[in-house]
TrEMBL record:
UniProt-recorded name of the protein: MoaD family protein
Superkingdom as given in the UniProt entry: Archaea
UniProt cross-references to InterPro entries, sorted A to Z: Beta-grasp_dom_sf, MoaD_arc-typ, Mopterin_synth/thiamin_S_b, Sulfur_Carrier/Prot_Modifier, ThiS/MoaD-like
Species annotation: Methanobacterium formicicum (strain DSM 3637 / PP1)
Entry-linked SUPFAM superfamilies: MoaD/ThiS
Signal peptide limits: none
Database matches in Pfam families: ThiS
């Protein structure tokens, strides 16, 4: 089962630092699945924009690789994958 880790403020939003769920598919479906599982937490709207794309300041890593370079929302997820989702920080 894939393990999903939430870092920084996403851990606060979800109330979880990590979850292990049964899932086989693509990142887009995983996000929908997590949004349902985390009902009332505004998970999907926190990490995706109105077009359904991952927001610029959100990183989704599968086994340490940013999905933007490996297929985006169509990136496949396998049983033993580690998914890390976090918002990048910026400041001046």
């Amino acid at each position: 089962m894939p393990e999903i880790k939430f870092l920084s403020n996403l851990a606060d939003i979800t109330g979880e630092k990590s979850l292990t769920i049964e899932y086989d598919g693509e990142i887009s479906g995983l996000i929908d699945n997590l949004d349902t599982k985390l009902e009332g937490k505004d998970f999907k709207s926190t990490i995706t924009d109105e077009a359904g794309e991952i927001k610029d300041f959100v990183k989704v890593l599968v086994n340490g690789n940013d999905i933007r370079g490996t297929g985006g929302l169509s990136s496949p997820i396998k049983d033993a994958d580690e998914i890390v989702i976090f918002q990048t920080l910026a400041g001046g």
